Amino acid sequence: MSRGFFVTFEGLDGSGKSTQLRKLAQWLEAQGKHVTITRQPGGTRIGDRIRALLLDSGTENVAPRTELGLMFSDRAQGIAEIIEPALERGDVVLCDRYTDSTEAYQGGGRQLGSEIVLQLHADLCQNLWPDLTILLLPDFERSLERARNRNARNARTGQDENRFESEDERFYRRVYDTYRAIAAREPGRVVMIEGDEGIEEVHRRVVDAVRARLGI
Q1: Across-strand partners of 132?
Q2: Among 195, 58, 38, which Cα is nearest to 130's?
Q3: What angle do CA 108, 110, 115 make, to 5 degrees?
Q4: Does residue 1 have a pLDDT over 70?
Q5: Which residues contact 45 (CB under 8 A, 6 or more apart)?
Q6: Segment 149-159, tens digit of pLDDT
Q7: Beta strands in 67-137 (DSSP E)
Q8: pLDDT tens digits, residue range 63-109?
Q9: Using CA atoms, how far apart are residues 188 and 210, in angstroms rounded to an integer?
Q10: Alpha-carbon distance 85 to 93, whole Å?
Q11: 191 contacts: CB under 8 Å, gap ≥ 6
């Protein structure tokens, strides 16, 4: 059995990545592919507990390096428990966020730099990189507004994952700029889709990128 194919979706909250991941999963299944879906942080029992700690707005005074360590603890567990077994089965693995998020948010946003993120990835994740990364970068202000509106709605239903949304615009500018730097550094892996195109047009471009890699 041939090894599977690993796709990650990246971008600011509010960029539409979760919607596009679901649409790609449906398309792949219609082509007869077996798909495994996961997310980071989260996706495993341990990871979901880490996610709750990291994203809850009631979590206070987390040092940037502590946050970084928790992100990689979650990732190492997700690789061991979900991603690597699925790839060995020959699945197409779709993951909502991966190490590019950590480089953007902790390396860029928290100003820890890229070097420590990439070194931890090599040490703790066996340097496992996606075959393809879809980076969605719609208009910065609109993306941030959508994310904050969505999280406000979620908070009213009792789901609080708003800790990062409390950061100021300068933090998110650093995240956004770091994502662009990653795309420039790794054009062979990262397909960047910019602008505020409609959901179906973005989906078409995502499918085109996947077709080119998988030959389907």
Answers
A1: 7
A2: 38
A3: 55
A4: no
A5: none
A6: 765 655 555 55
A7: 92-96, 132-137
A8: 999 999 999 999 999 999 999 999 999 999 999 999 999 999 999 99
A9: 13
A10: 10
A11: 132, 133, 134, 135, 205, 206, 209
User: CA–CA separation, 128 vs 189, rounded Å?
Assistant: 13
Report residue 196 as tokens.
């505020």
Contact indicator for 165, 13 with CB cutoff of 8 Å:
yes
Q: Which amino acid is at 193?
A: I
Return the DSSP state at 164: G
- How far apart (Å, rounded) are the C-alpha atoms in residues 162 and 55? 6
A 10 A CB-CB count for 119 gives 10
How far is the C-alpha of 110 from the C-alpha of 26, rounded, in Å? Answer: 35
Do residues 182 and 101 make contact, with C-beta atoms less than 8 angstroms apart? no
pLDDT at position 199 over 90: yes
| Residue 68 contacts residue 112 (beta carbons within 8 Å) | yes
Tell me the three state secondary structure of residue 135: strand
Type and span of the H or E element at 190: strand 190-194
0.70 exceeded by pTM: yes
Token representation of residue 57: 């707005």
Distance (Å, whole) CA 162 – CA 9: 20
